[in-house]
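hiii so my PI (J.) wants the whole complex modelled not just the main chain, which honestly fair. so below is everything: two entries, each one labled with what it is. i double checked the lines twice but i was tired so who knows lol
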Amino acid sequence: MSVPDSAGRFGPYGGRYVPEALVAALDELTAAYEKAMTDEDFQGEFHRLLRDYAGRPSLLYDATRLSAEIGARVLLKREDLNHTGAHKINNVLGQALLTQRMGKSRVIAETGAGQHGVATATAAALFGLECVVYMGEVDTERQALNVARMRLLGATVVPVTSGSRTLKDAMNEAFRDWVTNVDDTHYVIGSVGGPHPFPVMVRDFASVIGVEAREQCLGLLGRLPDAVIACVGGGSNAMGIFHSFIADESVRLFGFEAGGEGVETGRHAATLTGGSPGVLHGARSYVLQDDDGQTLESHSISAGLDYPGVGPEHAWLHDTGRATYASVTDAEAMAAFELLCRTEGIIPAIETAHALAGAQRVASELGSDAVLLVNLSGRGDKDVATAGRWFGLLGEADAEGPGENLNPDA
Amino acid sequence: MSSGAAFVRARGEDRAALVGYLPAGFPSYDGCVAALRAMVAAGVDIVEVGLPYSDPVIDGPTIQAAADVALRNGTRTTDVLRTVEAVAATGAAVVVMTYWNPVLRYGPERFARDLRAAGGQGLITPDLIPEEAGEWLTASDDNGLDRIFLVAPSSGDGRIASTVAECRGWVYAASTMGVTGARDATSAVAPALVDRVRAATDLPVGVGLGVSNGAQAAEVAAYADGVIVGSAFVRRLLDADSEQAGATSVGELAGELAAGVRRQRSDRR
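here's the output for the full assembly
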């Protein structure tokens, strides 16, 4: 079965659960995106930007010292080396080009960790577009450096004070802006969620990750990897690297969600592991919700994974069993964060550290002959303050031990 | 019975119908029921009971604030149905306005059955378009409930035609692009949207436009079959010192609006 269908449905998931006022804009976007996918000019310009501006192809790095530690060969797909420091730039450049082709002059975005907001602000500066980024007030505090970056790039950052004051509420506010200003505004959704065509469009713009990685693996190994591993919040870096491998039945796909303090505590962001099917932010997928369908607040040390929903294609891959999803706690992620720093001299984003912790688990399952392709989705500069507090590296006044909850909203 | 009957009755009196909204559980369960009863006593024809939801993406700050209060009060889906029952007992037409996920979680068939049993006549679904509404089309057919889908200024004529074809009872015209909330400005877009809907259906058309006083109600009543008022009622309760004062204030506004929809008939088409 080919997914999605023309209505954007991945089995029972996906679709468009939106106000009627947005349908015309989604139809316009769908038409522009479908045209762009086969338009040589568009593809030429997109790939020129990916190469000359974002710095692609990103490297595939054979992480031998990490491999020795975890007991399987680990190849890191270095999305952290892209311009702006994460995989987010791939999707944003594609959507910025589409914005230009649709004749719109303004972009808006939601952001959690700030990586998508920074990428959007970057593309807006490059394309001369007005840019407004919605960010939960809690996240503006824990990712203050990225707020400054977005403002340096000329974006307006709006701290969102409604609800849980994190990513889901930033997304609510972005939808409210969009429905009001849809004539001149494109909403650059940063993950593989939201109404059709966003899940398939964002996946396609991000899929350059997997296209490159698959070729690089064949070049390096002469064969495909045994497993592809990524962290999953909304799920764009994971779909970006999974997509090219879905037809390769020998390759196992693993997504690791944010387990926060542990799924059993209720304080987590593991939507597929601990949630249930429902509708949030325009798509049917898995949602963290109560018995009445009210969205529950998520919890994670990682702002970028702190979201109670997940892209509909992941729900589909989960239900069909093509991909396997599990959760990684804050503590497990931070241990893996430290391991990569110490063995390879690479400071990963805390989001990405969830994938590394997952790789340790997959290594013990598949054994030492296995080759694991891990998407190193972002770099950790933005997380230095959080990690410094976690490991007690910031001096007496700020010293707190591992295991304490360091979310400022807690 | 269909909530469309209230429009027919209003049309028979050569006036527009008045539709009033409050979210259940706001300012409390009892306070909401008292305010809705005051609305009905003052001339509201159709009551919209809102189901407060955690992520109301097309509501402005006023209704968001009310939904927050209602959820903090512990309002459950069953409380919404109890509110419907309490207001339907007055004889007014009652519909529920809700985002889709709470109904999906409750079970569309079960929700339809329980809404019917409570005396509710239909559902307004601001984030459910007919293309995604398969389960709701079935459940509403099975239980004889109205399906009030929305149309917007950005809806093309083809979409208006396909949307109203799935409506039953009446059509909700969301006549400005944007979130809910009281507005000072009147819209030139709204009469044009109503005309386009009328070209596609004989169903009555209710207009939601941020109306907050009698003069605005009269203006909308000149071209629409129904005037929908939400945020202005919520504002009265948010500003009141007590629930009793709030219900009184809501009743006063309803009276002013009810007078408004009875004015301005001369240029009615």
